[in-house]
């Protein structure tokens, strides 16, 4: 059974011309048709020549091209189940989709169309009909390993056998931005699109711990740490200005809420908001997995892809996880003023993905 969905915000389609007769009416219709054809061709030309071009698509599952498998696609597998008798995980995923759609309807975003750069976080698996938007600090290393196994044609057998640094080599996986306009549209129409999210502040603390408290991230310290120290520390020592190796959590947050930071360009992907990385109000995700239910959600996606019996999503190392208690400890040294400003900055991620305001915050 075909399932119809709309995947990227598109202009409304003009209706048919009103009935009429005579040579003048025919000429007018022909002129409008020629004009529409020219405008359509110009739009496609602009797409190829400009990175700021607009992507528009109507999602119709089972129409046009589909993934290489002859059986039902991953997307059809998701929506073909009896929607009145769902399992717990199916009901949970359906609830998350509906929540996302409701928030998107009630909180219109300024951005109404996608550019190729907006699609660089969407990883493509043509064999299984999957589009995965990766979010750093939400098990994306393991998901990239899994995607390498899925797309590797037998080259990789076990996700954890792939070194972490190999999983992040861009050439090992294809991004949706690598394709032509028509190929992008086809995949958006017929592939299952999924994203995994996490409590925004737990993700933020995890990013800080990994990027600013680990000695092996010296390149990251020089790129961001030195700037943070220079802008947000009084009387910094010369070594700190040179190495940027000892950024405090408070200094990191001052950097995030500083308007100068956002004027310089987008955030680094490790602390960029999910709605800015994956654009969930323009790309309508079929599955919103959560870090808190990672194993069951990930395995369900693999089941939809027909790979659930072959690949098991790697378990997280418990000693490396950032929990709510961990985040509460870091935020205990942050005053209410900066807590409020930071919460405002990440508010849409809390809202879109139905995360409660952390109880450890002092927002009043």
TrEMBL record:
<protein>
    <recommendedName>
        <fullName>Carbohydrate sulfotransferase</fullName>
        <ecNumber>2.8.2.-</ecNumber>
    </recommendedName>
</protein>
<keyword id="KW-0333">Golgi apparatus</keyword>
<keyword id="KW-0325">Glycoprotein</keyword>
<keyword id="KW-0808">Transferase</keyword>
<dbReference type="InterPro" id="IPR005331">
    <property type="entry name" value="Sulfotransferase"/>
</dbReference>
<keyword id="KW-0119">Carbohydrate metabolism</keyword>
<comment type="similarity">
    <text>Belongs to the sulfotransferase 2 family.</text>
</comment>
<feature type="transmembrane region" description="Helical">
    <location>
        <begin position="30"/>
        <end position="49"/>
    </location>
</feature>
<dbReference type="Pfam" id="PF03567">
    <property type="entry name" value="Sulfotransfer_2"/>
</dbReference>
<keyword id="KW-1133">Transmembrane helix</keyword>
<dbReference type="InterPro" id="IPR027417">
    <property type="entry name" value="P-loop_NTPase"/>
</dbReference>
<keyword id="KW-0472">Membrane</keyword>
<dbReference type="GO" id="GO:0016051">
    <property type="term" value="P:carbohydrate biosynthetic process"/>
</dbReference>
<dbReference type="GO" id="GO:0008146">
    <property type="term" value="F:sulfotransferase activity"/>
</dbReference>
<dbReference type="GO" id="GO:0030166">
    <property type="term" value="P:proteoglycan biosynthetic process"/>
</dbReference>
<dbReference type="GO" id="GO:0000139">
    <property type="term" value="C:Golgi membrane"/>
</dbReference>
<feature type="region of interest" description="Disordered">
    <location>
        <begin position="1"/>
        <end position="21"/>
    </location>
</feature>
<keyword id="KW-0812">Transmembrane</keyword>
<dbReference type="InterPro" id="IPR018011">
    <property type="entry name" value="Carb_sulfotrans_8-10"/>
</dbReference>
<keyword id="KW-0735">Signal-anchor</keyword>
């Amino acid at each position: 059974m075909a399932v119809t969905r709309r995947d990227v915000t598109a202009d409304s389609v003009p209706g048919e011309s009103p009935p009429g007769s005579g040579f003048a009416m025919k000429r007018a219709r022909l002129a409008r048709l020629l004009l529409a054809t020219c405008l359509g061709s110009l739009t496609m030309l602009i797409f190829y020549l400009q990175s700021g071009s607009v992507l528009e698509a109507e999602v119709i599952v089972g129409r046009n091209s589909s993934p290489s498998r002859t059986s039902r696609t991953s997307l059809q597998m998701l929506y073909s189940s009896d929607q009145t008798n769902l399992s717990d995980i199916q009901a949970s995923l359906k609830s998350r989709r509906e929540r996302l759609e409701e928030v998107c309807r009630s909180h219109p975003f300024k951005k109404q169309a996608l550019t190729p750069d907006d699609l660089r976080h969407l990883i493509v698996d043509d064999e299984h009909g999957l589009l995965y938007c990766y979010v750093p600090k939400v098990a994306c290393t393991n998901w990239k390993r899994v995607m390498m196994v899925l797309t590797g044609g037998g080259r990789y057998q076990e996700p954890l056998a792939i070194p972490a640094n190999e999983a992040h080599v861009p050439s090992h996986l294809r991004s949706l931005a690598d394709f032509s306009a028509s190929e992008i549209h086809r995949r958006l129409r017929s592939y299952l699109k999924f994203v995994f999210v996490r409590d925004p502040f737990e993700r933020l603390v995890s990013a800080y711990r990994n990027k600013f408290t680990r000695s092996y991230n010296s390149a990251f310290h020089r790129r961001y740490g030195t700037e943070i120290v220079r802008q947000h520390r009084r009387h910094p020592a010369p070594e700190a200005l040179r190495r940027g190796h000892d950024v405090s959590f408070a200094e990191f947050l001052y950097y995030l809420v500083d308007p100068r930071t956002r004027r310089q360009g987008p955030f680094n992907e490790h602390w960029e908001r999910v709605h800015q990385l994956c654009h969930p109000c323009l790309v309508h995700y079929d599955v919103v997995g959560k870090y808190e239910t990672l194993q069951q959600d990930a395995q369900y996606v693999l089941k939809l892809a027909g790979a659930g019996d072959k690949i098991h999503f790697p378990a997280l190392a418990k000693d490396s996880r950032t929990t709510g208690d961990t985040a509460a400890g870091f935020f205990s040294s942050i005053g209410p003023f900066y807590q409020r400003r930071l919460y405002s900055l990440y508010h849409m991620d809390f809202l879109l993905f139905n995360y409660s305001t952390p109880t450890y915050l002092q927002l009043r």
